[in-house]
Amino acid sequence: MKLEELLSIISQKTSNYVNQSMLADAxxxxxxxxxNRIKNDSQVTVSExxxxxxxxxxxxxxxxxxxxxxxxxxxxxxxxxxxxNGNIIFSDEKIKLPVSKILINGYSSNKTYxxxxxxxxxxxxxxxxxxxxxxxxxxxxQIQDNKIYxxxxxxEFFVKRLSKNLxxxxxxxxxxxxxxxxxxxxxxxxxxxxxxxxxVLKSIG
Length: 205
Prior knowledge:
The chain is α+β, with helices and mostly antiparallel strands. Helix content is about 20%, strand content about 35%. The protein has helices at about 5-15, 20-25, 30-40, 45-55, and strands at about 70-80, 95-100, 115-120, 130-135, 145-155, 155-165, 170, 180-185, 190-200. Helix 2 (about 20-25) crosses helix 3.
């Protein structure tokens, strides 16, 4: 879920108009940070939803969630998508996990989702090592500029922001220590989109 959508939900839950300043107070960040995250389509994390629940005294993820509030998705416990220089571990082992629909940006029952683990720090602070990533499977759709994707290239999985020009794909990290890369020419055909990141469950500890 995006912060802009969350503002509307909080307003409905509290029956009061909640603005960016109030959301910033709830999260312990500045209003400018909230504004920047809204512009960047930043996802809301579980820990942030818990802060909002406490601050506004509302229930977003509470134990009173019903089956209608949850979706059961495949969690590949041994599959890691690299947020660094590339990492791949194949495994058929998976479990079904209940996830609140509020954590999935643009949730639709017509879409397919799964969950994998993040490895590395190139997408920090949005995605950190050991975070769980909710992936909307990408069935041949085009790249939406500047969204975060899981993709496979040269038999390695990556999690990066992607943008597409006429003859090249631009690969960007959040961490400024990692340089921008491009894929062009015939090698573009070697990039396989697995899915778009539509939720992040932050690792605790």
